Amino acid sequence: MTHVYMPPSIRHFEPLHMVFSTWVDHLPFGYDLVAAIRPKLLVELGTHKGLSYFTFCQSMKENEIDGLCYAVDTFEGDEHTDKYDEAVFTAVNNHNRQNYHGFSYLMRMFFNDALRHFDEDSIELLHIDGFHTYEAVSEDFASWYPKVKPGGIILFHDVQARLQDFGAWKFWEEIRGQHETFTFNHGFGLGVLRKAGGDRSQDSELLKLLFDDRSDNTAAKMRAFYVHASKHLENMRKLKRLNTAVVAKQD
User: What PANTHER family does UniProt report for this protein, alphabetically (predicted)?
Assistant: First the structure.
């Protein structure tokens, strides 16, 4: 009998926080990855309006994971996002306090200033999504890699985005051959890297599909699955908006 991979995002995930972001294409995978790893410590570098970060937090809460989450960002913008006003931080902070009080914390500072707050080999899920030049991504990886627990996961956003002076794609191409990695190509791309070491005996089904089965067929099916999952989520949102509009019109 053929086994069907049926992750929690397909069964019961409806984003509580929606803002414009190219991360929208990876929400189901982000939700499922957190559920699979069940991290005790999760750190995001570069949060902006919080779409990816709050997806992680929502998965922590809904899957009853006992861990801590930290979002590191100046919340002032950069050359790629342009500068933005205090309203961005206020909105993110309010959503965080209303929904994830007690395990999620915003660290309003530069990435390098946050380093001292985390022990070596402690972070189980690290998301690198700050300034996207080659030099910035390279520095973030070099600085934070020692903080990641052996066997831990590092996510890189925009590894297929070849616009402006974005260089995440170039850095990703360089390090892919040096580590266990998996690449999602849709939605400007998402790179998944696993740090060497750690106990793999209790790996979730998702981690096994990403890193143990190295066949091209499995990789292609995983990519197709999460393209479909993101489209399904988008269609569900459209249907909900349509139903709301219909009800409003009837009233």
Answer: RHAMNOSYL O-METHYLTRANSFERASE (PTHR40048)
Q: Which structural domain, as residue segments, surrounds residue 121?
A: 8-250
115 inside domain: yes
Q: How far apart are alpha carbons 57 and 99 in whole angstroms?
A: 9
Q: What is the CATH number of the domain that holds 25?
A: 3.40.50.150
Q: Residues 146, 120: contact at Cβ < 8 Å?
A: yes
Euclidean distance between CA atoms 115 and 111, whole angstroms:
7
Does residue 39 sit within a domain? yes
Q: Output the CA–CA distances (angstroms, integers) from residue 189 to 140, 197, 226, in the order listed.
A: 18, 26, 12
pLDDT at 82: 55
d(CA 202, CA 140): 29
H-state helical runs in 195-215: 205-207
| DSSP label at residue 50 | -
* Residue carrying the six token digits 């402006």: 164
Q: What is the mean pLDDT of residues 202-216?
A: 90
Give the predicted TM-score (pTM) of the model: 0.92
Closest residue by Cα to residue 117 from 52, 43, 54, 50: 43
Span 50-78, mean pLDDT? 94
The tokens describing 18, both together, are: 């929606």
- Whether residue 1 lies inside any domain: the answer is no
In the chain, the largest separation of any two C-alpha atoms, in whole Å, equals 60
**Residue 192 is encoded by which pair of tokens?**
């998944």
Q: In degrees rounded to 5, what are phi and psi of residue 197?
A: 95, -170
Question: Residue 118 has which token pair?
Answer: 């985390």
Give me the number of domains the chain comprises: 1
- In a domain, residue 3? The reply is no
Tokens 């995440």 sit on residue: 168
Burial label for 131, CB within 10 Å (0-12, 13-18, 19+), is buried
